[in-house]
Every structure is written in C-alpha cells, then in structure tokens.
Amino acid sequence: MELTNPFKRGGSVTRTEHLEATRILQHLFNASSFVGIDFGSGPNHHLLYFNRDGNESWLSIEGPWYVHSSGPSFNEDEQLHHLVGLRRERVRSILLSEDNPHLELTFESGAVLFVNGYHEQYESWQAGDARPLGGEHFLLVAMPQGDLAVFAEEDV
C-alpha cells in the first residue's frame, strides 16, 4: 500500500487540512453501521468495525472514550454495555474537533461516541478502510500531543 499526501496536524493545521481529514472521516463512517468490536491488549484498547454496502472501515481506540447516555458514567463495564448497544446502528454524523483530534460519532438514536484525541505520549486513535488494520486508501492517526497524521491515496 502506497499512500500519498501525508500531513501532521497540530497547532499549525490549516483549515484545508482539517476539512480534508473531516471529509475522509465522513467518507469512512457516515451512514455506516457499527458491526463489531475486538478487545485489545490494554484496558482502553478497542477495535470497532463498521460496514456500509460492503465497504468496511475501522476505528482503533487506545485512549479514553465514552458513550454519552442518559447519565454520566465512566465505569468501563457500563460504557462497554452502552457501546455494544449501538451494534448495527448507523452513524449519522462524525465530528473532528479543531483544537485536538477528538472524535464524536453520532448514531441514528442520538447516542454519541466520544473518543479523546489527545495524549502526551501515545496515539489516541487510528481509523482506516482496510481490515484488520491499515489503510487501503485512507489512514488517519491521532498522534501524541494533538497532532493528526492523514494519509490519503486519493482526494475524497
């Protein structure tokens, strides 16, 4: 896989770069259904799978995340219960924040999955379009200290 057009996003990201990353995330996740989850090696590492008309995408979460629900809860068991409850639900929209690469995936029910995009030393999340991990055409990585690396084979 040879991807072109990489850039790192930090405090000096241009509006054009942010819009490109947002378009790629929308392409990967809007109207896709959340179809599965794998549990990673660490307590916060989860790999989520999405599908839209046979096109697969994934989101690997290695940092803090939570599902907005009727009441605030940061208990991992409760959060996993909320997340699994979203299985087969479609993503209505995805938002990439401008200050740090935090993600918000809003589902048809109105539930919101928030993924923290900032960690001082580690990648917080990765997203792509080839299973199990990688990017056939697109790969986005929330890098340490709020940078965002985007690799795109083609424009969206």
Please tell me about this protein's structure.
With 156 residues, the protein is of the alpha+beta class. The protein is 15% helix and 38% strand. The longest helix is centred in the N-terminal third of the chain and has 15 residues, at 15-29. The chain is globular and about 35 Å long.
Comma- or semicolon-separated keywords:
seven-stranded antiparallel beta sheet; globular; alpha+beta; 156 residues; single chain; 11 strands; disordered N terminus
SSE string, helices as H and strands as E: EHEEEEHEEEEEE
Which stretches of 5+ consecutive residues score pLDDT under 50?
A: 1-12
State mean pLDDT (0 to 100 scale): 85
Lateral arrangement of strands in the main beta sheet: 1-11-10-9-4-3-2
Distinct helical segment count: 2
Which secondary-structure class do the elements indicate? Answer: alpha+beta
In total, how many beta strands? 11
Strand content: 35-45%
Largest sheet: 7 strands, antiparallel
Helix fraction, binned, reads 10-25%
Straight-line distance between termini: 18 Å
Molecular shape: globular
Q: In angstroms, what is the radius of gyration? A: 15 Å
